[in-house]
Amino acid sequence: MSTTTLGEFIRTHRERTTPASVGLPGGGRRRTPGLRREELAQLCDVSPTWLTWLEQGREVAASGKLLARMADVLHLTAAERSYLFSLAERLDPQHGEDDAEGGESLDAIVAAIDAPAYMLDRQWDAVAWNEHALALFGGWLDVEQAAPARPNLLRFMFRSPAARGLIVDWEDRAHRLVAEFRADIGKHAGEPLLAALIAELSQDSPEFKALWHSQDVVSREGGQRRFHHPRAGELVFNQVTLRLAQRHDFKLVMLLP
C-alpha cells in the first residue's frame, strides 16, 4: 500500500471539502476553506491522531468500511472513490452493486467478438458470454444468465465430467488454472465469497485441494488452448485475456482462431 500517496490524496480532498457541504458551520478562523482534520475524524468516527497518522503516511490499517465512509463524507466521484480504494488496497463494500446496471454493456462487449469470449469476475464466475463461447463450453455456460448461481470456471473444471472430456491435457490445465487463480485473487483469498468457494472446492475435489495447498503461483497468460469438442472435434485457439479499465476485477477472455 502506498501510504504516503494515500495520505496526500485524503488530505487534499479534505481541504477541498467545505464544512457547509457536510452540514457543519463554516465560521471561525481557518487555514483553508476545507474541513479541519478533527472534523473529518469526527465525521468518520476515528480519532484525530489516527487520521493524522494516515495523512502522514504512517502504517495504519484503514478498513473498507471506513474508507467508504470517508469517500461519502468527501463527496468523491466514482473515479476518485475507485482510486482511493486502489491506493489502500482494499475492496470497496459497494463492489458489485452496479453489476446489474452494467450487465447489458458487458453482454454487448462479448457479443461483438467473432470468437468464443466470456467475462469473469473476481470469483471466476462468468458474468457474460457470447454464442461462440456457449457453443464451445456447453457443459459450463448452458444456464440461464439470470439464474441465481452464475457458472463458475473452477467448479466446471473440477466438478464437471464434461470438462475432462473437453479440455485436452486436463491435468496440466487444472494445475495452471489453480496457480493463476491464486495469483489473481492475491490477498483477497480470505474474503467471504472467495473463502467459501475455496473451501467448497477443497471439500468436493481432492485434486483442487492438493493443487491449492501446493502454493504454486503463475501469471495469467495467453497461449494455445486445445479442446476435443463432442460435435466439432479437435479445436485449437489462442487465448487472450484483458482486464477492464473500469472494473479491474473483471477479465475478458477471448479464444481467437
Characterization of this structure:
The protein has 257 residues and is an alpha+beta fold. The protein folds into two domains: 3-88, 434 Repressor (Amino-terminal Domain); 100-256, Beta-Lactamase, CATH 3.30.450.180. 49% of the residues lie in helices and 12% in strands. It has helices at 3-16, 37-44, 48-56, 64-73, 78-88, 99-111, 131-136, 138-141, 153-159, 161-166, 170-185, 192-204, 206-213, and strands at residues 117-120, 126-129, 223-229, 233-243, 251-256. A five-stranded antiparallel β-sheet has the order 2-1-5-4-3. Helix 1 (3-16) crosses helix 3 (48-56) and helix 12 (192-204) crosses helix 13. The longest helix has 16 residues, at 170-185. The protein is elongated, with a radius of gyration of 23 Å. The two termini are 40 Å apart. The relative contact order is 0.09. The model has no long low-confidence stretch (mean pLDDT 87). InterPro entries: Cro/C1-type_HTH, Lambda_DNA-bd_dom_sf, MLTR_LBD. Pfam families: HTH_31 (PF13560), MLTR_LBD (PF17765). One of its GO terms (molecular function) is DNA binding. Residues 9-81 form the HTH cro/C1-type domain. This is Helix-turn-helix domain-containing protein.
How is this structure best summarized?
Helices cover 49% and strands 12% of the residues. It has 257 residues and is an alpha+beta fold. The chain folds into two domains: 3-88, 434 Repressor (Amino-terminal Domain) (Orthogonal Bundle); 100-256, 2-Layer Sandwich (Beta-Lactamase).
CATH fold field value of the largest domain: Beta-Lactamase
CATH architecture tag of the largest domain? 2-Layer Sandwich
The percent range for helix content is 40-55%
Average pLDDT, rounded to a whole number, is 87
Q: What is the CA-CA span between the terminal residues?
A: 40 Å
What proportion of the residues form beta strands (DSSP E)? 5-15%
**Strand order in the sheet with the most strands:** 2-1-5-4-3
SSE topology string:
HHHHHHEEHHHHHHHEEE
Q: What count of domains describes the coordinates?
A: 2
SS-derived structural category: alpha+beta
* Biggest sheet details: 5 strands, antiparallel
* CATH level 1 name of the largest domain: Alpha Beta
SS field, number of helical segments: 13
Determine Rg (CA atoms, Å).
Answer: 23 Å
Name the quaternary structure.
Answer: single chain
Which segments are poorly predicted (pLDDT under 50) over 5 or more consecutive residues? none
Report the principal-axis shape. Answer: elongated
**Strand elements, count:** 5
